[in-house]
Amino acid sequence: RRVHGEVTICGGTNEAHFCAAILGSQKELYVNVLARRPHEWKREIFADTQSSVWRHRKGIKGKLQVVSSDPDNVCWGSRVYLLCGPAQMNLLTLKKIAPYVEKGSFIGSINGQGGFDWMVNHVLGSSKLKTNNITIFALQNSPCVSKITRYGESVKIIGPTKEIFAAVLPKEEGNKVCSLLQKMFNIKTTILPNFLSATLGNLNQLVHPGIMYGLFKDWNFQLPYNSKEAPLLYESLDESTALWIQKLDDELQSVKAAIEKQNPQMNPILVAPIKEGIIRLFGKQVRDGKDLASLLKTNVGFASLQVPLKKVELGYVLDVDCRFFSEDIPFGLVVLKDIAHLFKVKTPTIDTIIAWHQRYMGKIFISGDSLNRSLFNETGAPSRYGKATIEELLHRPTPQPKL
User: Fold this and answer.
1) I need a surface site. Which of 35, 104, 319, 330 has the fewest CB within 10 A?
2) d(Cα 86, Cα 8) in Å, to the nearest integer?
3) Are 46 and 60 spatial neighbours (Cβ–Cβ below 8 Å)?
4) CA–CA separation, 151 and 148 (whole Å)
5) 2: closest CA among 95, 94, 84, 105?
6) What is each CA distance from 385 to 40, 50, 123, 392, in whole angstroms?
7) Does pLDDT of 342 surpass 70?
């Protein structure tokens, strides 16, 4: 089957459900889903907008054509592949879809963290990408905070962003991707100056680990919560937890500054300080922006999200297998740490928070202030792909010495 304009959504996450509803609601888009549990998906996805700034839309219904775990059933004829799984699944997904990617296709990630451009180049190869005129893109942050209410059937829209920031390779295709994303999501879209802006600028990799550390660093994991005691992710946040997030952002800004100082010829890295970045995304959804704690607690776009918990015999405990651990550490803070190392920037807060998380992950990503190179293949660190210079990080030709 060859259908012009076909989109294949890859994954079964909150983001995948959001995209299925939004894209599937557009009659001119033919939408398929590649997911591990296809039998649980309905052919119509409902997005509840009532609790969001999109309440005037009174719900969104998206129609899906084919849902399958077999790429042979959903990838033929696709022109746009939108990866919505956690970053640690992107390599596997890319390998599944690679044989089906046709000339002139677009391959994108709904979230920029984890070095998506390095992954695509690793799987498809720069030669194939160039020869087949394949464009890759990644959104710096997801276009909407959302939550699955019934897997494969419905999703709650919580916080749509007022702007999308996207990285594109090759750069010359930026206008096409801008038009494509604005058409798909009906959200203003800005093209970032380089892919590193998407990799460094994803909020999840700072906010989630900062909250986990701030809320739980002194908690006895053997003592369960009852259902009424379990904290909300943002509303339970206090000033000391916000301070850890701010320290992470301060180190990120130091890494950004070091890269730009050592490479004055490059385009600036568009990674706003965290308060400015959140306000830029959510605008008036932020009710009180006087400080970072107030901003996070009063952002309607973050409202009512719960700390990830799992049921045990006597109540609930923190779910250390959730994406805040499995994604935001190896494909978030480890990536930032590796880039910091390449540019000789010390990151004591990143080091501390990686070390705390890894205690519950059965992994040793860091010892002291040094990353464990033997685990690089389980992370998105640029060193995994042999990236050691700014030219390699940005896919630029290595400058030749002057004679």
Assistant:
1) 104
2) 16
3) yes
4) 6
5) 105
6) 36, 44, 11, 9
7) yes
In whole angstroms, what is the distance from residue 256 CA to residue 350 CA?
15
pLDDT of residue 398: 59
Sign of CA dihedral 160, 165, 167, 170: positive
pLDDT tens digits for range 9-42:
999 999 999 999 999 999 889 999 999 999 999 9
Task: Give me Rg for the CA atoms of the chain.
Answer: 21
Measure the CA–CA gap between 285 and 300, rounded to whole angstroms.
Answer: 5
Pair 73, 98: CB distance under 8 Å:
no
What pLDDT score was predicted for residue 352?
A: 98
- Indicate if the pLDDT at residue 4 is higher than 50: no
- How many residues does the structure list for the chain? 403
* Residue among 104, 96, 84 nearest 19 (CA): 84
Amino acid at 375: L
Mean per-residue pLDDT, 199-204: 97
User: Is 177 within 8 Å of 248 (Cβ atoms)?
Assistant: no
Rounded to whole angstroms, the Cα distance separating 292 from 295 reads 5
Helices (H), strands (E): how many in the chain? Answer: 15, 16
Backbone torsions φ then ψ of 395, nearest 5 degrees: 65, 35
Q: Give the pLDDT confidence score for residue 399 in this predicted structure.
A: 56
Mean pLDDT of 208-227: 88
Nearest 5°: the CA angle 292, 296, 302 is 165
User: Quick check: 272 and 116 in contact, CB under 8 A?
Assistant: no
List the structure tokens of 301: 């776009």
CA–CA gap between residue 40 and residue 63 (Å, rounded): 15
- Any idea what DSSP says for residue 13? S
Give the position of tokens 């909300």: 232
